[in-house]
Each structure stands twice: as structure tokens, then as C-alpha cells.
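Q: What would this chain look like folded?
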Amino acid sequence: MSETIAAISTAPGEGGIGIVRISGPASLGIMKKLMSGCPEEVEPRHAYWGRVVEDSNNSEAEIIDEAVFLYMQGPASYTGEDMLEIQGHGSNVSLKAILRAVLGSGEDDVRMAEPGEFTKLAFLNGKMDLSQAEAVIDIIQARSDMSLGIAESQREGRLSRTVKDIRSELLDLLAEMAVDIDYPEADLYDDTAETEKIVSSHINRLRWISSEVEDLLDTASIGRIAREGVRAVIVGKPNAGKSSLMNALLGEGRVIVTDVPGTTRDTVEETASIGGIPIVLVDTAGLRDTDDKVEKIGIERTVQAIASSDIVILVFDGSKELDEEDDRVLKYMENFSSDNFIAVINKEDLGTTVTEQMVSTRLPEASVIKTSLVGRGAAEAAKNIRDKINTILELSSVDVREMTIVNNERHVKMLRSAERNLDEAIDMLQSGEPMEVAELSVHYAYNALGKIIGEEVGEEVLDTVFSRFCLGK
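A: My prediction, written as C-alpha cells:
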């Protein structure tokens, strides 16, 4: 007989409603034991209101809470097993008391659920494949409209269907290759020209399938942005307006702003959602020469932040001539392609000395914005920069609910493995290697894709995937 598991499913803290979730064969028995006045015949998927008590057969039993009981009969449930949700008040004390009553109900084999065990049961019982199960935690952890849209699309099975279609093509090809390997005596290909024709056909199909895998991998950069956010580093000499710009983009006074150079002595990171896309803004210490040990460390971190960024926002004090510190920044930035640079010429209200041409001459691909980061100018500059980021990264045209996007590192690893094995099979066939050797690489590719949706995976992989989940999910 299988076990019954239980856990609090709502987040810690106070709330209007809190849920204790139970899954397993003892679910209905627990409802009848803990619900005062529970009907003899419980209708699945029907909400019942009642008092939660430790023993419904004891008229003097202490009332724990008032709650809604919702029983779901397997397989028509999230886990595919019988389930019960007790929806009480959102008090930690109340929910823990309900959970203790569930665990102490006297029903056989009732225990605390492990992290992610409800979703793991859903996977094991065929309610969803592994990529859909992983999308559940992505929905829970979504930080933007973009990441939520991708996760919802995957939970609905968009990635699963694409992977299954590719595997189906590979399976057909493997079947054809098996015929070529197992029945050479059938004289199907008894001349060199016919053999070359068959091998060429296999190569062309492998190239086509490999291109489909490559198309999925090409979406991984969008997936990474949705998962981690666009990293936008703000660079410039001290007191040029970097912190003011960051505050404008965040819409709040997160960073200290003064007229004293060197206020920012370390990188400061904050996350904002710009047009539904998560943006990790990094305010930096600049790139000037200094004898201050602490500031030197901040400058080293600035260099590291630039190297790992998706967008670089350069801020210049437009009211003053470009000086040695500006030149140092420009010289350093000339080491990179400037097509993901946004140059902000600040302090336009004080008169403009720095021109767009001065910046464009040094950084020809950079987008240039002239503004004043005070009053309404700050909000306008923030909007212009948001628009530039969308344009540079070509994110405004991305419809995450209509595209199959890969946003999971495990999936990327398996796709790369599949692509590598497909390319190896092509090379083998082109160089005249035996069909058996090439067929083995194709089979490896087929298995790698299967691991994305949960086929060909061991318990260790499952434990790793579901350990990311919270209790109760």
C-alpha cells in the first residue's frame, strides 16, 4: 500500500487563507477523521465547510480551526492519487496544528512530504512530463511577465511537444538505419550508387533534425534573460549622474546621490521590470585612478561587471569638457563592440559641451541620448533607455507564449548533447564509417532529448530536479 504525504502548501507568514495538502490513499479517511460533521458520502471535487478537530467522533474534541475541505479522487487530481486540501485561516500556528492533526490521525503510513514530492508524484503518475514539472517551479519563482509567460507555455506542454516531434523524426530514422544494418543480404542496395543515395538521404535528414535542435538552442539566450534578467551596467566617471540614472530606472531613490565624487565605492545591484522583462541594473564605482584601497576593489568589480553584461550604459557629464577620466572610460570601452552600448549625455540643463558626435566617433555603434536627470528629465531618460534596451536586444518582438523557448540549463545541456551526437553521426556517414557506428550516435541523441521530458532519467536526476521545489508543491 502506498504512503500518504502531507505538508503546508502556502508560504510562511500571515495571510487570509492557508492550505494543508494531503495526497495518498488515506486522504478521505483523514477528512472523515478531522472534519466535524463530515457527511458519510463525500462527493469528489465538492467543497465542504466544517470545523477541524483532532477526532470527529469525540464530541468534546478541541476545535483547531474552521476550514473548507476539498477532496479529489484519483486519478482526477494534481498528483493522480486521492488528495485532500484543508483550506483554513492563514495563521502559522493554526496550519501547524492542522498538520499535526493530519500526521497524528491514526491513518496508516501518513508522513511529511519532501520538497517537491506532490509534483514528483504527478510526474511519476503520468500527469505531466519532467519539463512540465520543472515549469511549475519556474512559475512559482517567476520575476517578470516574460519569465511567467515562458513557464506557463512550458507547463502547457509547448516544449514537450517540440521535443517529442524531434524524437519521433529520430525514431523513424533509427528504424530505417536498423533495416540498413540488419538486412544487408536483402540486396536492397546492391550497387554503390544506390548505397550512396541511401547514405546521402540519412545525412540530409540528420542535418534537418540537427537544425531543429539548433533552433531550440538559439532561444536559450532569451530564456536566460527571462530567468536571470538583462544585466545592464552603468559606467562613467564619478559624479556624472550614474546613481541618479539608476534611481530613475528603478523609480525610487535606492542609490545615494551627492555632489561628492566617489560616493559609489562598490557595485550596487537592483532588479527592475522593464516592459515585462527583468533588468538587473548594476551601478558601478567608475574606472578612475585612485590610491584608496576600498575604491580600487570597487573599480575591479566594475571591470568584472562590464565583462559579464548584456547592456552597458555610459554616463557623461555633458556640461563639462571630456577629461582624462572620460577618456579612460572611452579607451577601455573601445575594447568591446559598441552595438550594445547606450551613451547618456547628462546635465543638458547646465549647457551642453559634450556632443553626440564626440561620443559616436569613439563608439560608432552606440545609441546616444541627451538628457537632464533631474525632474521630468529623469523619467523621460528612463523611458528612452528602456526603449533602447528593448531595441538592442530585440525583445519587443518576442511573444513568449507563441514561441518554444528553452530557459532551463538542464534542457540546454541535453540539447547540446543531442546536437553534438547528431553532428558526429553526420561526420561518420560522410567519412564512410560503418552505419552501426553512426546509428549509435543517433541513438545517443535520441536518449539525450528523452531526458528533457523525463525519459531515460535516473532517480538522481529526479531528486536534483525536485529538490528545487518548496514543501507542499
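The CA atoms of residues 319 and 352 lie 5 Å apart.
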